[in-house]
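User: Fold this; C-alpha cells only.

Assistant: Input:
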Amino acid sequence: MNRVLLLLLMLLVVLSPFPLGANREWSWSLCAMLMSVIGLIWAATRWRASAPVSTLLHPSIPLLFIITCA
C-alpha cells in the first residue's frame, strides 16, 4: 500500500502543472484536496498496521522524483 500511495503522490506532482501551470484556484484546490486524501489514506493504513514503516526504497525512485521536481 505504501508503494501505491508513493506512486500516486509522484503522479500528482508530475501532473499538477498541466492545468494551466497550476496557477488557477480550481487546480490549487484540486491538488491540495488530492494531497490531503493521499495523506489521510497513508495515515489510516499506518495506524492499522503493526509493522514498522520501511525506509528502504529502490534507489531509482527518489532519483526520478528529484529529476521530475527539478
